[in-house]
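Reply to dn_fold:

You asked what the input looked like. This is it:
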Amino acid sequence: PRLAGCLHEGVARAEGDVFSPSDGNCTVCVCLAGNVSCISPECPPGSCPSASPPDCCSCQPAKCSFRGRTYAHGARFSLDGDDCTTCVCRGGEVECSFAPCPALDCPQHQRHLRPGQCCFSCRDPPRPSGCFVDDNGVEFPIGQIWSPGDPCELCICQADGSVSCKRTDCVETCPYPIRIPGQCCPDCSAGCTYMGRIFYNNETFPSFLDPCLSCICLVRAAAAG
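and this is what came back:
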């Protein structure tokens, strides 16, 4: 005798019952006149129609054909000979963008593009050849030592183009030193200064206070005799 219903995978189904098998992948079945008829959804062959695949279709995103090459979905690549441009394959379409470059704080004439680089960079400033010390354009070469008007102050031109100055501390070692024009410290080895006059070493002269006295200038000392 004919039974009302269907038996599918060990499970009894009533007449007209609509169900999905456990591994049917969105397959829909119906019990009709004791027979089970199943219908599977139609999925597009190969690629998916959108970036997110439908729930019931097992498909692969479309590949990209670009300049004679094929790239998988999500692949990133650079153009031939242009590492500054990055491209990506998205669902059959290729999207390219340029690498961002930093802002430069140097003038236009100091910018250059190094081989293999995508962005311009600033050239290194030229090394100074000397030191400019005034508005008249006077320049001293690197290593030059000079006095800026004060004989007790000496300046030197540094390698980076800056000027470094230092004063000389004088220590008098004799009671009557001689001050030579253009020389910083008094000179005790050249002679003696006595009553406003200069006498050289071993020079004998009469005393200004008593003509009967004779004086002599000695190195590092002045003595009367």
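The chain has no helices and 22 strands.
Hope that clears it up.
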